[in-house]
Design brief:
heterodimer; A: mainly alpha; 24 helices; 0% strand; B: alpha/beta; four-stranded antiparallel sheet; 12 strands; 24% strand; globular
């Protein structure tokens, strides 16, 4: 509105600076290290590097195919039957993988299909020999499909939900059968959504760390992110880490650019679609097929969850709860996740408010300034630079000047906060913009600004969306095994880190108990976030 | 100087002058030259997009002129923020914060940090009583009718006691009888305070009811300005008569047409 100074813009600039420091520091560490040891960096371009890069792309491609193609079928089946008992429950179950920490899911999958898993006997009899377990590519694919099939299904379902009811009314009036209805009505919408959804899944799979670390099981099945971790934590080969990291950045950058071209939603949290009234009913044959498709998907997605629950309950939970290490890890996790969520929501709010203030200032016309662009998409940079990359950069930058293990808490809080920002912004921005639309002129007229405005006007109307963003960010941070894998040590352990350690030392029952604990806490947080978000909307 | 019901001293109205003010909003551009005399009630009429709201926004400080000056009581207000100008404005909607009770919504007119002493609370109660909302201090806006919500906004206007009052179609969504009540309330407040009032309306009968003067806007400028009565007889500006729909030139005729708009 007015070219006056606005404390919201200042706050946005501070938030952007914080993100710039986080990303810039990591890059500085990488570049300094690379320049320091140029020959080492050049030597790192070897056959191993290209094998790792090729595997990273190959597994992501397969994971995308195996997630997206079945998701098309499942979404269509669900949309053809808008009202049956348990439909809502299935859709809600399909949101669980979004909340479940990757390490918990990986353990659940091992509990089912691992060498000593529930299905090992069945598979051994079918295969006629000892079941080797699903380590390697197969394990990675199963886990990626577990996460991304439900996500893609919900996104496709959302796309199908955009078909106007009138088209269905028309189709039923014309007596259109299932096949022409698919070809003429459903497929055009699905095809339009396909590149974006497939791109999102691909993106998630090339930056997947925990799954590959826990299920890859060897150098034959290693991705760039895991190779970075190994180069830093085991081989201590900084030159190789630099090259791997730069390659990873280049790769994600290309994918993000392509994705943006395709108009993908790179945050990827779908709302539960409300089923519109339908005028076409499926025939008997089709209904049976659809029921089969839905049942298979349900079994596949619910399986690892049930396995986590059962094996977790089988663990000696009482003893675990009494263990000093578990208690300390729980407290550390809770504290760090709380701080990360707080920081994430604060930075997000600052960016959102600055963006809005800049947009209002521009209202009379004119192009978006660079600053406004930055507040609009600033948090998106975090998606291009995965947590492991940030962690690796800082690890290299700080290893000569400080004890990298002592700064673990700062790194975990900083990187997790940045990581959760796209999600927090999603939760908060619509509410902020709507509230601003109602309140802006009135606040100006009455001189309610800065702190008074935050306290009297913004806080009461944004409490709920802020809490939604906070709970979601906290769940993400709690379950994250990225930064802590690099920076964790005996003195600073989070629950996922402890869980990884117990898996590594084959204390499977302990791991199962911890996974159950972690899974339930994250799930509760996301349920709360969802509930708060929904209440706020109504 | 007059002493108001709550003991604060309100200035009498200030003259509102727009000295060659130009402004553009996307494709549309506006140029205003006008003087609204102190203490008068002026109805602002004109087709959609003619610049009625823009005129008020420029005076209130929600928009900044590209060139020219806005003078209030002869003083250039320059780039002063809306809250620092001797102006109160009531919008068509969103005059209240939905999460704050009536009392707080009015009290914000006294203190933007909502730190209210006993005297302030008494003044709030008095202002609410004046607009006919005694005893509804603790209600939330959603528990009030549309007319009551605008009354709360008028109570805040009373409390702020600014010498210029801008009304941007605040009663447009109310039924005819209720609108007349609200206009009478505004007329009553004006009789007490003698502030300068500019009110935007689409209803000729509103202008007739309380408008002493009339400003007719067309295509981004003030096409005609003068005593309201002059506009409604046959000698009124042609563009204005086309706008209200000239059928025999009587107000009764135009009233009939105007009602249909609501």
């Amino acid at each position: 509105m007015q070219p006056r100074s606005d404390s919201r813009i200042t706050a946005g600039v501070v938030a952007l600076a914080a993100i710039a420091v986080l990303i810039g520091g990591a890059f500085a560490g990488l570049i300094l290290e690379g320049a320091h040891d140029l020959s080492g960096a050049a030597a790192a371009f070897d056959g191993y590097l290209f094998r790792v890069a090729r595997f990273t792309l190959w597994q992501a491609l397969l994971s995308t195919l195996l997630s997206v193609a079945p998701a098309l079928l499942v979404a269509r089946a669900l949309s053809r039957h808008p009202a049956f008992a348990g439909r809502r429950l299935i859709l809600q179950l399909f949101t669980v993988p979004l909340a479940l920490p990757a390490i918990v899911a990986a353990l659940g999958i091992l509990t089912l299909y691992g060498r000593a898993g529930y299905f090992a006997g069945v598979f051994a009899r079918l295969g006629g020999g000892e079941w080797p377990g699903i380590y390697g590519l197969s394990g990675i694919l199963v886990a990626h499909v577990f996460f991304n099939l439900p996500l893609a299904t919900r996104l496709f379902l959302e796309a199908l939900g955009t078909i106007p009811a009138d088209q269905w009314r028309l189709a039923s009036q014309l007596g259109m059968g299932a096949r022409p209805a698919f070809r003429l009505i459903e497929w055009p919408v699905l095809r339009a959504a396909l590149p974006g959804i497939a791109g999102l899944v691909f993106m998630l799979c090339i930056t997947s760390f925990t799954i590959v670390l826990t299920l890859g099981g060897g150098p034959a099945a290693t991705t760039l992110e895991v190779a970075i971790y190994q180069a830093l934590r085991f081989d201590f080969d900084p030159a190789r880490a630099v090259v791997l990291t730069l390659l990873q950045i280049a790769l994600t950058f290309v994918v993000v650019v392509v994705l943006t071209r395709l108009g993908a939603n790179t945050v990827g949290d779908a709302n539960l679609p409300v089923a519109p009234r339908r005028y076409l009913s499926a025939g008997r044959m089709e209904s049976v097929l659809n029921a089969g498709v839905i049942a298979l998907a349900l079994l596949f997605v619910a399986g690892p969850m049930v396995a986590t629950l059962l094996s977790g309950l089988g663990a000696d939970l009482g003893r675990l709860a009494g263990e000093e290490a578990v208690r300390r890890a729980t407290l550390t996790s809770a504290g760090l996740a709380f701080l990360a969520a707080l920081l994430s929501v604060t930075l997000s709010l600052a960016l959102i408010a600055a963006r809005r203030a800049l947009a209002l200032r521009r209202r009379a016309g004119g192009a978006m300034s660079l600053l406004e662009h930055a507040t609009d998409t600033g948090a998106g940079f975090v998606l291009v630079v995965p947590p492991i990359v940030l962690g690796a950069g800082w690890f290299l930058a700080l290893r000569n000047v400080a004890d990298v293990f002592a700064i673990a808490p700062v790194m975990v809080v900083g990187v997790n906060a940045a990581m959760a920002m796209p999600f927090a912004i999603r939760a908060i921005r619509p509410a902020y913009d709507a509230a601003s639309e109602r309140h802006e002129r009135l606040c100006l007229a009455l001189g309610v600004s800065s702190w008074n405005r935050l306290r009297l006007i913004d806080w009461p109307s944004l409490r709920r969306p802020l809490a939604t963003g906070f709970a979601f960010a906290m769940a993400l941070s709690l379950g994250d095994l990225g930064v802590i894998a690099l920076f964790g040590s005996d003195s600073v352990q989070t629950l996922p880190y402890l869980l990884l350690a117990r898996m590594g030392s084959y204390r499977t029952a302990d791991a199962a108990g911890l996974a159950l604990l972690l899974g339930i806490v994250c799930l509760m947080l996301v349920v709360v976030a969802d509930w708060l978000g929904r209440e706020g909307r109504s | 100087m007059t002493t108001t019901i709550n003991g604060t001293v309100a200035e009498k109205g200030l003259a509102v002058t727009l000295d060659d003010v130009s402004f553009s909003y996307g494709e549309a551009s506006f140029r205003f030259n006008a003087e609204f005399a102190a203490g008068r009630v002026t109805a602002v009429m004109g087709p959609s997009g003619s610049g009625k709201s823009t005129l008020l926004n420029l005076i209130a400080g929600f928009e900044t002129p590209r060139t020219g000056k806005v003078l209030l009581g002869g003083v250039d207000v320059g780039n002063a923020p809306p809250s620092a100008r001797p102006v109160s404005m009531v919008f068509q909607e969103n005059n209240l914060f939905a999460h704050l009770p009536v009392e707080a919504n009015v009290g914000l007119g006294r203190s933007p940090s909502l730190k209210l002493g006993d005297a302030d609370r008494a003044a709030v109660a008095e202002a609410l009583a004046r607009v006919g909302l005694a005893g509804k201090e603790k209600r939330l806006p959603r528990e009030l009718s549309g007319g009551e919500r605008q009354r709360v906004a008028l109570a805040r206007v009373l409390l702020r006691a600014r010498p210029v009052l801008l009304l941007d179609e605040p009663f447009a969504s109310l039924g005819p009888a209720l609108r007349d009540d609200m206009l009478d309330l505004v007329a009553g407040i004006h009789a007490e305070r003698k502030m300068t009032v500019l009110f935007v309306t689409h209803q000729p009968e509103d202008a007739r009811r309380i408008g002493q003067d009339m400003a007719f806007l067309d295509e981004g400028t003030i096409a005609a300005i003068g005593p309201a009565d002059d506009f409604f007889d046959r000698s009124g500006p042609d563009a204005f008569r086309r706008y209200i729909g000239d059928r025999g030139g009587t107000v009764a005729g135009s009233q009939h047409i105007a009602r249909k708009r609501t």
